[in-house]
Amino acid sequence: MAARVPFGERYLAGRSAIHTTDARAKLPATLAYVFAVTLTPVGHWPALGLLALPLAAALLLSRLSPLVVLQRSALALPFLLAAVPLMFTKEGEVLFSVPLFGWTASREGLETVLSILAKSWLSVMAAVILTATTPAAELLRAMRALGLPRLLVATVSFMYRYLFVIAEEALRLLRARDSRSARLPGRSASASLAWRAKVLGNMVGSLFLRTYERSERVYAAMQARGYDGEPRFLWRRAWRTTEVVLVVGLVAYLAGVELYARH
Amino acid sequence: MLGTRVETAVETAVEVIDLRFAYPDGVQALRGVNLAVRRGEKVALLGPNGAGKSTLLLHLNGILRGKGQVRIAGVPLRTDNLPQVRAQVGLVFENPDDQLFSPTVLEDVAYGPLYMGLPREEVSERARRALAQVGMTGFEERSPHRLSLGQKKRIAIATVLSMEPAILALDEPTASLDPRARRELIHLLRDLPQTMIVSTHDIPLVRDLLPRTVVMDGGVIVADGETQIILSDSALLAAHGLDVY
Predict the structure, then answer these.
(1) How far apart are CA B193 and CA A195, in angstroms?
(2) What is the pLDDT of residue A137?
(3) Predicted confidence band at A189 (pLDDT cuts at 50, 70, 90)?
(4) If you count DSSP H runs as helices and E runs as strands, how many of each does chain A have, helices first?
């Protein structure tokens, strides 16, 4: 079982104010935040600035390393690529044009692209802070407490539980392949690309079969302990006033910013 | 005659009568198994891979349903009494990654009692007691994938102890454990009062812990008796691929 997958848990243990806030408050707060950011009109920079404030406050309070949060938020970068063509398709004041292709970039287009980047980056940052300060199990409990369907929560829960198990299995398969991918000195590798692709395909297939068989064993283990088709969860803890105040306060602030952005 | 029957019903924890089972792919895993285990008895199930040991264990709480009869504490296993039977027979699977399917240790250990419909306080209380019993107090909020195999195995046992079963069916409890984890697990099993049926290849474990041995091969029981006598019958063991040294 020495195989360790290169990706780990998103949660970074800590005792900060953000860490200790109930996940049932953090999850809806994050969702409301992402919602507000998404609804902000394109190119309304003061509003986006105001929206960045609670995020900065959360980041400071969480005592997470800003570098780590920035690194993880790099996830938003590919979205920029998808948005770039908008720069050329939007009509408006011409900024510059690409010779030969005849593409012209517009100010409005550039504004849209920058807005999309800023919005997706803020949203991803919020999600990064949430997942870095909340254990996955707590998030699952929050989902259930907020009334998400049981089956959905159970599915996410299994995904979380077996993600690492399956990734480790894949890693072991890769290692077993690499261990036998030997080469003799003075001979070039004879394996063709097609052959190697076939090996990889077989590995994916075998991983799928193993996972499928595992699901049968897991189901048997659930049945052995009385599973009757209805997911049930173990819950405790009551809502605390501070957390309710926090969510309501944040939502009020976000609504204020949105109203201001639309006058 | 009648008196004997009543006594049998009370004293026999597990009774398997002419059990036959074939997997959907056609493999005939059990070809007529007959076995009776008295209450409190500790039985080893020996046999080569593919002998049908795991298949037999999976019949004890009705996960698999073959032809023939399985009686738990004298009651024949039927579809309508499956939930009750599952509360009595705690089945621990070989791979703890199959057994531990919840995001945290506490939720997993509480799973059985939760499905038994017990009040929340008792569910938590039983889960904590079971964790204490296997020496894993303090691991409640950990996720199973972060634990060592030995820890996972112990928690897997806790997940059925929390159901307070009368019978424990363990599939290869010491497989691939390091010597220390193995020793700790054996100590744990030694202290458990339940009737036990343990499928294993671990001969020292059998010698130490399980006074009765049942040898399976090819889907049938080929020997059944006192562990000491069976383990000294080298001709029998060699004939069924079990080398004792």
Answers:
(1) 57
(2) 86
(3) low
(4) 11, 2
